Amino acid sequence: MLGKQIKHYRKQKNWSQEHLASVAGLKQVIISRIERGIRNVTADELQKLAHALGVSVTDLLEDDRARAASE
Predict the structure, then answer these.
(1) Which value, to the nearest 10 degrees, does the dihedral of the CA atoms of residues 58, 64, 65, 71 take?
(2) What is the C-alpha to C-alpha distance for residues 47 and 62, in angstroms, rounded to an integer?
(3) CB 46: neighbour CB atoms within 10 A?
(4) Are the C-beta atoms of residues 31 and 20 closer than 8 Å to each other?
(5) 14 CB-near residues (< 8 Å, 6+ apart)
(6) pLDDT (0 to 100) of residue 67
(7) Backbone dihedral region of 46: left (phi > 0), alpha (psi from -120 to 50 degrees) or beta?
């Protein structure tokens, strides 16, 4: 799930939702809703989030099993 991936990378950086929102140029409520899976992410938001987190869009779209297999 995309929201879990975003939260995973955000937590790795010890960032709050507010900080990620600020760095990505989004609102905190958008981050919260995406992480909880109650809001779809746009392509533009996905790019902004990946850039802010320092990962690729592919990294965000991988599921947990794929990430674990590659580690």
Answers:
(1) 70
(2) 15
(3) 16
(4) yes
(5) none
(6) 54
(7) alpha
**In angstroms, rounded to a whole number, what is the distance separating the alpha carbons of residues 57 and 18?**
21
Q: What angle do helix axes 43-53 and 2-12 make, rounded to 10 degrees? A: 20
- Give the domain range for residue 64: 2-70
Q: What is the pLDDT of residue 63?
A: 72
Q: pLDDT by residue (tens digit) across 3-55? A: 999 999 999 999 999 999 999 999 999 999 999 999 999 999 999 999 999 99
Closest alpha carbon to 48 in 21, 14, 12: 21
Domain count, the chain: 1
Closest CA to 12 of 59, 65, 61: 59
Domain CATH code at residue 55: 1.10.260.40
Alpha-carbon Rg of the chain, whole angstroms?
11
